[in-house]
């Protein structure tokens, strides 16, 4: 067993899943866990066949579409139970370059004392976005800026979904209190790690829009994120951080 587990949540990703899993395995010394939320397109069956042929690949089947946050927290529990030291969040659609995995993981080899998270960032120097229209760039940048100001987190790409966490850090956070279902989960995790007094490092990546399949982004996801960030921001201003972050001793 490798020390790092890459967690890939899926829902209807049959066109992308084999490619992204192969790229992840070819880019770093990792195992891969696909967490499938009952994809009707047969994504899980493809992964199941891959797992039977390669013991670095595992599949977690979930009964229904429970959301990104629930899929990741289930994956975190799986990683902890099996003794992995690091976990990686990675999208299934190919937007996150697995070729940056080694560099992201390596930060924990010589810089790990108070390092809580490494983010593959679009919005730091050297980062970029390919095939996004101007309005998508504007929404993403504005959303990250709003969250950064409201929550006081020193992160430029607050909504980024390409991340590496130590499992020991995840065990310090009260992940059971997370209610965020969509991409707001990433903002929630950012504020929790920062609230625990841990550093967050951003490394530049080239983010590419998916070429196959349908995006899971929706207006409801954006609304959830803006609403929750606003609530958290007011809680922070009122001095409610100890209750909000819910650290475990």
Question: Overview of this structure, please?
Answer:
By secondary structure, the protein is an alpha/beta fold. The chain has one domain (4-241): Spore Coat Polysaccharide Biosynthesis Protein SpsA, Chain A. Helices cover 43% and strands 18% of the residues. The chain is built from nine helices and nine strands. It has helices at residues 17-27, 43-53, 68-81, 101-110, 134-151, 167-172, 184-195, 219-237, 241-245, and strands at residues 4-10, 31-36, 57-61, 86-89, 115-121, 128-130, 163-166, 199-204, 206-208. It has a seven-stranded mixed sheet with strand order 3-2-1-4-7-5-8, with helices on both faces. A two-stranded parallel sheet has the order 6-9. The two termini are 29 Å apart. Residues 241-249 have low confidence and may be disordered.
Summarize the entry for a quick read:
By secondary structure, this protein is an alpha/beta fold. It contains nine helices and nine strands.
- CATH architecture, by name, is Alpha-Beta Complex
Q: Can you tell me the overall shape?
A: globular
Terminal Cα separation, in Å? 29 Å
Number of strands: 9
Tell me the name of the CATH class: Alpha Beta
Overall radius of gyration: 17 Å
Any low-confidence stretches, pLDDT <50, length ≥5? 241-249
**Largest sheet geometry:** 7 strands, mixed
- CATH fold-level label: Spore Coat Polysaccharide Biosynthesis Protein SpsA, Chain A
The CATH H-level homologous superfamily: Spore Coat Polysaccharide Biosynthesis Protein SpsA, Chain A
Q: How would you spell out the order of helices and strands?
A: EHEHEHEHEEHEHHEEHH
Structural class: alpha/beta
How many helices? The count is 9
* Total number of distinct structural domains: 1
Mean pLDDT: 89
Beta-strand share of residues: 15-25%
Which strands sit side by side, in order, in the main sheet?
3-2-1-4-7-5-8
Q: What is the helical fraction, as a range of percent?
A: 40-55%
């Amino acid at each position: 067993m490798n020390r790092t587990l890459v967690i890939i949540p899926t829902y209807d990703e049959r066109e992308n899943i084999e490619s992204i899993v192969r790229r992840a395995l070819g880019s770093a010394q990792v195992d891969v866990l696909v967490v499938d939320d009952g994809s009707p397109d047969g994504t899980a069956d493809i992964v199941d066949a891959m797992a039977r042929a390669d013991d670095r690949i595992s599949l977690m089947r979930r009964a229904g579409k429970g959301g990104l946050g629930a899929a990741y927290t289930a994956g975190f529990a799986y990683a902890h139970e099996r003794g992995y030291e690091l976990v990686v969040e990675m999208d299934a659609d190919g937007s996150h370059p697995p070729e940056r995995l080694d560099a992201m993981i390596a930060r924990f080899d010589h810089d790990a004392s108070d390092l809580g998270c490494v983010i593959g960032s679009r919005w730091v120097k050297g980062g970029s976005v390919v095939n996004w229209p101007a309005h998508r760039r504007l929404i993403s940048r504005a959303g990250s800026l709003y969250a950064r100001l409201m929550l006081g987190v020193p992160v430029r790409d607050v909504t980024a979904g390409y991340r590496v966490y130590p499992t020991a850090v995840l065990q310090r956070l009260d992940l059971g209190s997370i209610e965020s279902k969509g991409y707001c989960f990433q903002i929630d995790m950012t504020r929790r790690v920062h609230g625990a007094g841990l550093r967050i490092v951003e490394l530049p990546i080239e983010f590419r829009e998916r070429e196959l399949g349908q995006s899971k982004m929706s207006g409801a996801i954006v609304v959830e994120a803006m609403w929750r960030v606003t609530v958290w921001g007011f809680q922070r201003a009122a001095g409610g951080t100890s209750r909000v972050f819910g650290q475990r001793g």
